[in-house]
Amino acid sequence: MQPMHLLSRIQRHLRRTGTSPTAFGRRVLGDPRFVHDLRNGREPRIATERRIHAWLDAYEETAR
């Protein structure tokens, strides 16, 4: 997965849920700066990307 796709997916989630970037990073990874850093070019590890996608998949599944 490309980091930009990940960022786009996170930003869609933030808009839909009204969650702040800080709260998202803290909740999903324990890193309140994650989204900010991603926006500034941080490249997450593949395992981190998978973890976020899995979290978002689970969230979207329960939101249905």
List the SSEs and their pairings.
Blueprint: H1 3-17, H2 21-29, H3 34-39, H4 46-63
Helix pairs in contact: 1-4
Textual characterization of the structure:
It contains four helices and no strands. By secondary structure, the protein is mostly helical. α1 packs parallel to α4. It is globular, with a radius of gyration of 11 Å. The relative contact order is 0.17.
Features:
globular
Count of helix runs: 4
| Quantity of strands, as a count | 0
Order of helices and strands: HHHH
Gap from first CA to last CA: 24 Å
What does the overall shape look like? globular
Radius of gyration: 11 Å
Strand content bin = under 5%
Task: State the secondary-structure class.
Answer: mainly alpha
Could you write a compact summary of the structure shown?
With 64 residues, the protein is mainly α. It has four helices and no strands.
